[in-house]
Amino acid sequence: MKNNINIAIVGLGQIGIYLYNELNKKKKGIEAKTGKKIKIVAISAKNKNKKRKFKIDKKIFYLNPLTIFKSKKIDILFESIGQSDGISKKIVETALRNKINVITPNKALIAKHGDYLANLAEKNNVNLEFEASVAGGIPILRTIKEGLATNKINKIYGILNGTTNYILTEMEKTNENFDKVLKKAQLLGYAEPGNPKLDLNGFDAFAKIRILSALSFNTKISKSKCIMEGIQNIKLEDIKIASQLGLRVKLLGISKIIDGHLFETVHPCLVSKNTYIGNVNGVMNAVITEGKPVGESVLQGEGAGPGPTSSSLLSDLLSILRGNVKLPFGISFSKRKTIKPFNNDNYVNSLYLRFEVKDKQGVLSLITNRLAKYKISVKRIIQTPDKKNKKATIVIITHKTTEINAKNCLSIFKKNKNILKFPTLIRLYS
Amino acid sequence: MKNNINIAIVGLGQIGIYLYNELNKKKKGIEAKTGKKIKIVAISAKNKNKKRKFKIDKKIFYLNPLTIFKSKKIDILFESIGQSDGISKKIVETALRNKINVITPNKALIAKHGDYLANLAEKNNVNLEFEASVAGGIPILRTIKEGLATNKINKIYGILNGTTNYILTEMEKTNENFDKVLKKAQLLGYAEPGNPKLDLNGFDAFAKIRILSALSFNTKISKSKCIMEGIQNIKLEDIKIASQLGLRVKLLGISKIIDGHLFETVHPCLVSKNTYIGNVNGVMNAVITEGKPVGESVLQGEGAGPGPTSSSLLSDLLSILRGNVKLPFGISFSKRKTIKPFNNDNYVNSLYLRFEVKDKQGVLSLITNRLAKYKISVKRIIQTPDKKNKKATIVIITHKTTEINAKNCLSIFKKNKNILKFPTLIRLYS
């Protein structure tokens, strides 16, 4: 690689603009570490005159990012638009085809088109780096590809979304309900003001789990249908009851190999307050790997925000500036296996079930009989009457059962007049 | 780098022999990830016929490791003898001079001669990698050099010695005294059977802190005199009293920049049971970095044993096989600064002081008056009489004070007939 490196940044939102400023600020340090002089020669965004936190050099501004390649020789391109398709995909494709290295924090793009783009990078002998796409400032991808490279990883899981972890932590701490805490998160910049749906429904964490699986198990990114649940249905009441039981609700992403099959999921879990994962609070992210021979490894850090994201983007930059071309998934496209999906029906968990029922004789036995019929043993029952409203809340913690069995068992409660709402189900982490 | 890579392993103790087996087992996986075929062409140890966990190929055995270079073309040499000088230094020097890449888990060697050897590697344009020298399987060096490369790190600290952490954890859990738990640790292979001194007195953790400092702050390895205390003087009584106060004793290594000066230390600390670091138990290690813009990052994992160590040694191997030459400390020898040491006298802490005194009137006021004279305010006093022996234990938690002030204040208690022993001092982590 030559000594003067031309850089383009496409997308000048919160991440792109912070990166722009960091690159300008850290030029000298980067030169000291790599011997390369970097220069931002092109930037692009939808709006040239938008008010931004840092001033941009308008002389290098392009409205259409695709025209950059025609007028400037680019060595490394940062894509920070963030779409899974559209212009994000187009610009990355075009760059790789033109033998330009690409760095992106775009998890949606990588989770959807990562295999295709990695293959394209490999064919064109350039780098495609995406450390910032998973867990913000935590260098988890590099750790799997390099630090734990020869380990056999069997499981990787963790708290992969800072927005939801903040909301769950804050609800427990302040006793405020979901909607109120969500608004606070939006004001603080922890949740997107317009459409926080992709964080809340688990989609964001799920994209990260897909990427982590592929890296951990040396497989292609899976496309199979999985259990994906967010925190939209977690009520303050559940958090309070869990707390009394010494438990805490966490949105976990989990990926593991079960009998040679890949199981990936994102859903809320009840974890013990005494565990490590139960104490990762606020916007923090944590990723835990179980590998041989290394044992259990934990990485924790700030999972979102322009600072941590920019830290990861710059680590990708240094990796490119320092070394020769690296394979995006640490192993050649042709050597990454495909792996059969685990049958979700057979996923086994203890369950927390919260029923809202009419305060009538026989309702509890209706529930327990139904559970017994499906051989779901009860570990604990807590019944709290609400005499005034002639209602009661029944919380049941069950022993382990499969997804399909629980589903079949609970189906009846959809249309029972004494059961006021379909029961809330939260899996216990085991 | 050519496609067929010749490897030598010098030192076939617990680590070397495990590595030997792992390399043979993982040849194919390594080839898939790097395209390089590795072959162990030379091994060396003091004793050819010692009983070992894995069979060795005696045809490639050398009694004198220095003769290897004359008869074989070596590309990568593993040094796993473990001395800070002597044959360890000699073999690494010779290898680097012969343009052979070196990988070592030898923290004593790197902490003492790391600058000299790194410079030698740089001059000869080969790699010197030592990921396994700090925190076993945790890829902390790579994370600092690459994952957090452009961050400004101000502080790095953690639990860096598994032996002492196991002993402290076990004493609290079982109520057994230091000597008994140490024996158990030796039986389990967590402490060296012959001479566990270097673990217990903080020397091992201190070597690691020196290496971490140099990497975190881009400085030469410091040689200054530091506060280094081990856990030899921690009594079961201290652990019990701490526990009642919601505290736990941990041996921490700490390195930070204070007003542009480097402060490095290893000593037992009292940490709250509610903190993250207070819950890293057993043989686990944890390293916490504070950097900008990334914020706080935590890495936790198994800190010792052949499995985790071998995981790090192989990550170094893959780094060499995959890439071009990397600078041992992530930055050129000539660009690493020297940094003035912080004056240890000005180190500030709250203190836990345990006095064993005669149960006589006036003793408590003697102590408190002395503290008052040195303006050390008392936060908490717990006096426990031992009527039968006419003794009492007085535990005092102080507000913050400097090292020098505490030292001067406590000096008088060396020769007071009512003070039965010089007080035990443990610093509170802040």
Q: What is the gist of this entry?
A:
By secondary structure, the first copy, chain A, is α/β, with parallel strands linked by helices.
Question: How does this structure look, described?
Answer:
2 copies of one chain form a homodimer. In chain A, strands 7, 8, 9, 10, 11, 12, 14, 15, 16 and 18 form a 10-stranded mixed beta sheet that branches. The longest helix of chain A has 21 residues. The mean pLDDT of chain A is 95. With 430 residues, chain A is of the alpha/beta class. Chain A has 13 helices and 18 strands. Helices cover 35% and strands 26% of the residues of chain A. The first copy, chain A, starts with a strand and ends with a strand. In chain A, strand 9 and strand 10 form a beta hairpin. Chain A folds into 3 domains: 101 residues, Rossmann fold, CATH 3.40.50; 172 residues, 2-Layer Sandwich (Dihydrodipicolinate Reductase, domain 2), CATH 3.30.360.10; 84 residues, Alpha-Beta Plaits (2-Layer Sandwich). Chain A is elongated. The interface between A and B is large, with 52 and 52 residues. Strand 12 of chain A pairs antiparallel with strand 12 of chain B, so a sheet runs across the interface.
List the helices and strands and how they pair.
The structure is a homodimer of 430-residue chains.
Chain A: E1 4-10, H1 14-34, E2 37-44, E3 61-62, H2 68-71, E4 76-79, H3 86-97, E5 101-103, H4 107-123, E6 128-129, H5 140-147, E7 152-159, H6 162-174, H7 178-187, H8 197-200, H9 203-217, E8 227-228, H10 236-244, E9 247-258, E10 261-272, E11 284-292, E12 295-302, H11 306-322, E13 348-349, E14 351-358, H12 363-373, E15 378-386, E16 391-398, E17 401-402, H13 403-411, E18 424-428
Parallel strand pairs in A: 1-2, 1-4, 2-3, 4-5, 5-6, 8-10, 10-18
Antiparallel strand pairs in A: 7-9, 7-11, 9-10, 11-12, 13-17, 14-16, 14-18, 15-16
Helix pairs in contact in A: 1-11, 3-4, 4-9, 6-7
